DNA sequence: TGCCAGGCCCTCTTTAGGGCCTT
C-alpha cells in the first residue's frame, strides 16, 4: 500500500538560513489515499516569535515556552515519518525547515518532497491562485481548523493531494499516482505534460462543482483534537 | 511595519526581471 506523509511547519519567518526556526510541525500519514495517523506538536527552539507571526498563526511565546525542545520534537517527527516520502504545499519551504531542524537534532533527512503547488500549477492552470486557502475554497474542500496552524494546514494539503490523485486517475487514467509519479509530474515541463498525461492534459472541464464527487481522505478517521500525537481510534 | 530566502515559472526572456508561494 502506497504511503505518503503530508507535512506542514509553522515558523518564526521564511528563512532558516537567516536564523528563523520552526515553532510547530504537523504530519498527516496516508496509506492508499486514506489518513491512518497524525503527528502534531509545538516546539521550543529558544527564539522569540515576531508579533506579526503571532498575529498570523495564533502561536504565542507563552505557548512555545511550555512546548518540548525542538530537537526532541523533530526526533519524534522523524521516527513517525520513517522512510515515508513527504508532500507539502510549497515544498521547498517545508523541506528547508525539515532539513535544518533535523540537522540540529542530528537526524538524517533524505526524504524526497513532492509539492502540491507545482502539481496544482500543472493540473489546474485555470485556478486564479495556487495558495492553499484559495485551492481549498476553489475545490470546496473541508477545513478542519484555523488556517496557519500546522495540523489544519497539513489536513488541507492532504485533502488537496487526494483531489490531485483523484483527478489523475479520473481525468488522465493514471492507475497509481504514487509519490514517484507525483515527483515525475512536478518536474515535467508544461510543454511536455501531454506526453505524461495524454493529449487532454491542460483541458479542464469547467468549474469545480461540475466535476465528479471526490471522497475526502479523512472520511474514515476521527477529526483532530488538541494534543501532541494523534491516532485514529 | 516590512523586510529577510529560494525555487519555480512566465514573458515585453534567454547576457533579465519580476510574480508566486511558504512564515
Automatic annotation (TrEMBL):
Its EC number is 2.7.7.7. Residues 204-233 are annotated as: Disordered. It holds the Pfam family RNase_T. Residues 3-170 form the Exonuclease domain. InterPro entries: Ribonucl_H, RNaseH-like_sf, RNaseH_sf. It is an enzyme of class 2 (transferase). SMART domains: EXOIII. GO terms for molecular function: DNA-directed DNA polymerase activity. Keywords: Nucleotidyltransferase, Transferase. This is DNA polymerase-3 subunit epsilon. The lineage of its organism: Bacteria, Pseudomonadati, Pseudomonadota, Betaproteobacteria, Burkholderiales.
Amino acid at each position: 500500500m502506497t504511503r505518503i506523509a503530508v507535512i506542514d511547519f509553522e515558523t518564526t519567518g521564511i528563512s532558516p538560513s537567516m536564523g528563523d526556526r520552526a515553532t510547530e510541525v504537523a504530519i498527516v500519514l496516508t496509506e492508499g489515499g486514506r489518513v491512518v495517523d497524525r503527528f502534531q506538536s509545538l516546539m521550543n527552539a529558544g527564539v522569540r516569535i515576531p508579533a506579526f507571526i503571532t498575529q498570523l498563526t495564533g502561536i504565542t511565546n507563552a505557548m512555545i515556552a511550555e512546548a518540548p525542545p525542538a530537537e526532541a520534537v523533530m526526533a519524534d517527527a522523524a521516527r513517525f515519518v520513517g522512510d515515508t516520502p513527504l508532500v507539502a504545499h510549497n515544498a521547498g519551504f517545508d523541506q528547508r525547515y525539515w532539513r535544518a531542524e533535523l540537522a540540529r537534532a542530528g537526524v538524517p533527512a533524505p526524504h524526497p518532497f513532492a509539492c502540491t503547488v507545482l502539481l496544482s500549477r500543472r493540473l489546474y492552470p485555470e485556478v486564479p491562485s495556487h495558495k492553499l486557502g484559495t485551492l481549498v475554497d476553489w475545490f470546496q474542500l473541508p477545513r478542519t481548523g484555523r488556517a496557519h496552524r500546522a495540523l489544519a494546514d497539513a489536513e488541507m494539503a492532504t485533502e488537496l493531494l487526494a483531489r490531485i490523485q483523484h483527478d489523475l486517475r479520473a481525468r488522465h487514467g493514471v492507475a497509481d499516482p504514487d509519490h514517484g509519479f507525483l515527483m515525475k509530474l512536478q518536474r515535467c515541463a508544461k510543454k511536455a505534460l501531454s506526453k505524461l498525461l495524454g493529449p487532454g492534459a491542460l483541458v479542464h472541464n469547467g468549474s469545480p462543482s461540475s466535476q465528479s464527487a471526490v471522497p475526502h481522505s479523512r472520511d474514515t478517521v476521527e477529526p483532530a483534537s488538541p494534543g501532541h500525537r494523534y491516532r485514529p481510534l
